[in-house]
Amino acid sequence: MSNTDDADAGWLPEVKELNRRRKWAEKLGGADAVKKHHDQKRLTIRERIAGLADANSFGEVGKLTGNGQYEGAQVMGVTPAPYVMGLARIAGRPVAIGGEDFTVRGGTSGASRRRKGGQGGFVEDLAHHYRIPLVNLIDGAGGTVTSLRGRGYSVFPGVFGFERSVELLGEVPVVCAVTGTAAGGPAGRAILSHFSLMVKETAQVFAAGPPVVERALGQQIDKNDLGGHEIAVNTSGTIHNTAKSEEDCLEQIKRFLSYMPQNVWELPPVIETDDPVDRCEEELLHIVPRRRTRAYKMHRLIDLIVDRASTFEIQPTFGKAVITTLARLNGNPVGIIANNPMVYGGAQDAKSARKQTHFMELCDNFHIPLVFLVDVPGFLIGQQAEQEGALREGMRSVFAAARLTVPTITLVIRKCYGMAGMATCDKNGLDLKVAWPSGEWGSLPLEGGVAAAFRKEIKSAPDPVKREKEIEDELRPYMSPFRTAEAFEVEDIIDPRETRPFLCRFIDLAQHRLRTSLGQPLKAGVAP
To answer: pTM for the full model?
Structure first.
């Protein structure tokens, strides 16, 4: 081709090479690797992004990154980097999104100092600089000793650190979804998030996998027994939610983000609802049994008062003595923290306290008002509870409650006792406390309190059991919630049927308060 022909072609040859390189990237690890991935009932990273992002909204960054194969100066092919990332929209709102490509080297990154994803990766910089949510789709095992050959030396821990990951927790919503095996750094990133989830059949999360455990400890263990969802979600609470499939995983991510603002400098989105604010459900009048020792379904109670079909529960299978769920009241996002009388009678154990603390910090960080539906007899007691640190974790909840800045409403459904009850009150704010007629409260329940305070008198009585009951009957009238209301120590007693309109009124008012408080200094973020 002559120089004139080159001039007529412009930059078309280079553009053709650009398109060829893009096609190589889209093949991921090749047809055989993709088929093997699909045979394991797993989506590729590009399929995951396509299923999560709005149609045609994904703008990839770094698509040409990879290892080229050359014959002389002629490129014959490029093996893409094992990470795909860029900008996209979810429900019309921009996000930074990325994840490991397991079909290339099992999603394990190389020795490059400039990283597309992972800790310290460019995708985190996108979220930070543009103040948009970050979605991590994790499917990689982290570091590998094979990089020693390529690098020629071992790196000190922290070269690829979590500094940006930690910084983001105080800036934008961070979601991490584990779709395969995550060990080491990827597992750490999954925990450094506001909301994490894992796919039930295909995902595992652990500090180190079975080969390392066997070599270090001599223990042979299956990867699911070490870090499957039963362990990571239900037992340890390392990960918040389980997804029954990859499709369910993507839907949960969308649901979570729908309650979140884009960043801590904005308010969460309010949506239109056709659920009447003044809806009063007759069922609420009968939902709490008159017998104080009988349980009832708190999940049903929540459904009756919030906007219909608006709940999204966080950690439903961990710390089940408390329910933590995002919901809406008149279209406004709220966080509901409700004690569950079906588990330990609602008493707060170590796991439920951890769960409550995280949820309070999450809502406070992103300007989501809190509603406490209280039925807590106190901290769980006994030897096992003490061994598990129920008191320490419970006091961390009290500490977190004392630092809340978002509008908070305390509604006592039945019991509110002791220090666990303190963790449901807004002592630095309006401290709005209301109750149903079934409400009762105090330093500790009457029965145990009488046994402790009148121990000598009861023991010396001719009939100790009879005397204990007599004292309880004598003091019980003072436990009436109406006595407390007379003293304005509780702001109001409401008809249970009026709960929805009551809450909607105050949550509507909270929106103005939130709008005027956005000029306050940036909060410290959410502890994992």
So the answer is: 0.91
